[in-house]
Write a structure and sequence with these properties.
With about 120 residues, this protein is mainly alpha-helical. The protein has a single domain, classed as Zincin-like (2-Layer Sandwich). Helices cover about 50% and strands about 10% of the residues. It has 5 helices and 3 strands, in the order ααβββααα. A 3-stranded mixed β-sheet has the order 1-3-2. Helix 3 packs across helix 5. About 25% of the residues are buried.
């Protein structure tokens, strides 16, 4: 039972290495391995965004505020940032690639609701 609890906690609060592995899985599944991050890590200083990336370096940062949120929500933010490695703007091509993630709309709604409840405004990825 302790092993199951530890595994559940690991899924809820993944390490930076776990995030990188998950990003590469998502890139393979939904982006034909075209977006390949060099690192994915938690960032304490992400107060107004859920995530960010630096396409030139292939780095992705996720707000620590995502810790403990459902894995499918964290996956959505990872997916959003992975697509930014391919498409810098939020145009139609960008959203078409993000929508390959099956829970994209649901996750966006979750984050919008969370943001509204927490501070009365919607935050960006």
């Amino acid at each position: 039972m302790l092993e199951r609890l530890a595994a559940k906690e690991q899924r809820r609060r993944p390490s930076d290495d776990d995030l990188l592995e998950r990003a590469r899985e998502l890139a393979g599944r939904y982006l034909d391995d075209k977006a390949w991050p060099t690192s994915v890590r938690w960032a304490e200083n992400q107060r107004h965004r859920w995530g960010s990336c630096t396409p030139d370096h292939g780095t992705i940062r996720l707000s620590t505020r995502l810790r403990g949120m459902p894995a499918w929500v964290v996956d959505y933010v990872i997916m959003h940032e992975l697509v930014h490695l391919l498409v810098p703007s939020h145009g139609p091509r960008f959203w078409a690639l993000v929508e390959r993630y099956p829970k994209a709309e649901r996750a966006r709604g979750f984050l919008e609701g969370y943001s509204m409840a927490a501070n009365g405004s919607v935050e960006e990825c």
